[in-house]
Amino acid sequence: MSNGVFKIPTAKNEPGNTYAPGTKERETLKAELKRQSEMVVEIPVIINGEDVKTDTVKQVVMPHDHQHVLANYSQAGEKELRDAVEAAMAAKEAWANMPWEHRASIFLKAADLISGPYRDVMNAATMLGQSKTAFQSEIDAAQELIDFLRFGVECANQIYQIQPESMKNIWNRTDYRPLDGFVLAISPFNFTAIGGNLPAAPAMMGNVVVWKPATTSILANYYFMRILEEAGLPKGVINFVPSRGSQVSEVVLTDRRMSGFHFTGSTDTFNTIWKTVGENIAKYNSYPRLIGETGGKDFVFAHETAQADKVAAALVRGAFEYQGQKCSAASRAYIPASMWEEVKGKLLEETAKLKVGDVRDFRNFMGAVIDKPAFDSITGYIDYAANSEDAEIIAGGTYDDSVGYFVQPTIIVTTNPNFKTMVEEIFGPVLTIYVYENDKLEETLDAVNTASIYALTGAIFAQDRQAIIHLERRLSEAAGNFYINDKPTGAMVNQQPFGGSRGSGTNDKAGSIFNMIRWTSPRVIKENFVPTTDITYPFMDEE
Ligand SMILES: NC(=O)c1ccc[n+]([C@@H]2O[C@H](COP(=O)([O-])OP(=O)(O)OC[C@H]3O[C@@H](n4cnc5c(N)ncnc54)[C@H](O)[C@@H]3O)[C@@H](O)[C@H]2O)c1
Ligand SMILES: N[C@@H](CCC=O)C(=O)O
């Protein structure tokens, strides 16, 4: 029994640790890295709160030391996937009917557990399993994940307060029901926070979920699942099913009770899923909500009034942090000829300083790329540029996968604004630059707008206010997250709600009210306190 309109604790962005030499946080994180490096975790499938081991067991390795096994995980097959759907459906009624403040408490508690006792665990698992540096892990597995949980609760609370007007004798109410079925969440490898948010956001709104994590981020995703359990998530509300994507599509995506799909990953995968849903549309109980944040080919555009050193700094951080494996990473840049020599000098100087290696050595700025297919794909682009007459590699261009999947930060300069590496998402530490003549501003802006199918993030650099206004207008459809005099990465929950359009997804802005509202199916209730007995209208009494 709940009596009260409860006040949700005010959400604030989680402050980050620095891990500077001599700090306590650096010491405890290093100890946790050592502990996790010396053990092999056995990761089960988790269905209805029960650990399930299967016959298909696969390994999780460190990308920066690929012979080092961190964990073995059970892969769910068809039976486990079907069981997960049934477990979710069985948990549905009790979860949907749990008083909202108790649902909220579970996620707020999980946020506090990550902020406190499990911060090192989440960071170490993300560093070792996904090859993130301490800095990159902290902004993801700690800060962003905590923010998603706390602001998610706040957004849900705001939605529940959106209520209709009522007239004399009438009370109108909106009942924010969860969707009529279950939600399938499929997450990418590159952000532990996104992995957590994809199942958590629909669950906060009262939905039950089948969650398929990416195979290369399973370790951190598994620890998050355990934290949710410790926070009190009832059995079956989120079912954790490491599995093959194609099999999830066959078995879970096409189940008639699938009412929502929450995805982040590549555009190709989302297209395949959308097509599968379309082909099966007559089968579903209700039209499934399809929410997908996908790829990017993010740009930095410098105007002739920009400051060269700031442009160069944004390019280095925007392109090479986390090995360029951010959907928001700066991967194409447009620099005016008048500024190029200065930008180039600074870029080469700063890029030469970046150390690439094992993330347990805190002096490294970059770790390894995620796995062998990613390594082969990224180095394929580098080789293509090396052999092209339209391009010159001015930094990096080398790679080595003998110990870990290491790719040096690479800068390509091209004379063709539609060169392959200016157009396609590479998802690695490769930046391509097109130097434009100062008097070709409009043609170059057209190229920014049309070169790729994506519209995720983009940054402009300029000092002149009229130029800023002009660029902002001319590139209005080119990015869902647009930056002025800043790098195109590092969006924060509740500050820069994140998502793009065109080939970059449905732009539902993760962690915001726009996304959370997709997980409800509102029922409007009209209650009449004084029902009428009149059948006819008053004006019918006389002619
Ligand atoms: N827009 C954003 O907010 C955002 C954020 C992070 C990553 N991304 C994008 O994600 C991509 C990188 O992540 P990734 O390599 O994990 O992406 P991916 O598309 O390869 O995989 C994403 C998930 O989909 C699963 N999957 C693959 N094929 C499937 C299929 N046929 N059916 C069902 N599931 C399938 C994978 O196993 C994984 O869990 C990049 O394109 C990046 O831009 C976008
Ligand atoms: N939200 C993150 C990117 C997530 C995609 O990989 C950023 O803004 O850098």
Strand order across the biggest sheet? Answer: 14-17-18-13-12-20-21
First-to-last CA distance: 56 Å
Q: Kindly report the name of the CATH homologous superfamily of the largest domain.
A: Aldehyde Dehydrogenase, Chain A, domain 1
Figure out the total of helices.
16
CATH class of the largest domain: Alpha Beta
Bound molecules: nicotinamide-adenine-dinucleotide, 5-oxo-L-norvaline
Sheet-strand content, in percent, reads 15-25%
The average pLDDT value, as a whole number, equals 98
Q: Unreliable stretches, pLDDT < 50, 5 or more residues?
A: none
The CATH topology of the largest domain: Aldehyde Dehydrogenase, Chain A, domain 1
CATH architecture of the largest domain: 3-Layer(aba) Sandwich
The assigned structural class equals alpha/beta
**Biggest β-sheet description:** 7 strands, mixed
Cα shape? globular
Number of strands: 23
Radius of gyration of CA atoms, rounded to a whole number: 25 Å
Indicate how many domains the architecture comprises.
2
What's a concise summary of this model?
The protein is α/β, with parallel strands linked by helices.
Explain the overall architecture.
With 543 residues, this protein is an alpha/beta fold. It folds into 2 domains: 240 residues, 3-Layer(aba) Sandwich (Aldehyde Dehydrogenase, Chain A, domain 1); 187 residues, 3-Layer(aba) Sandwich (Aldehyde Dehydrogenase, Chain A, domain 2), CATH 3.40.309.10. The chain contains 16 helices and 23 strands. The chain is globular, with a radius of gyration of 25 Å. The site of nicotinamide-adenine-dinucleotide has 30 residues, from helix 8 and helix 9.
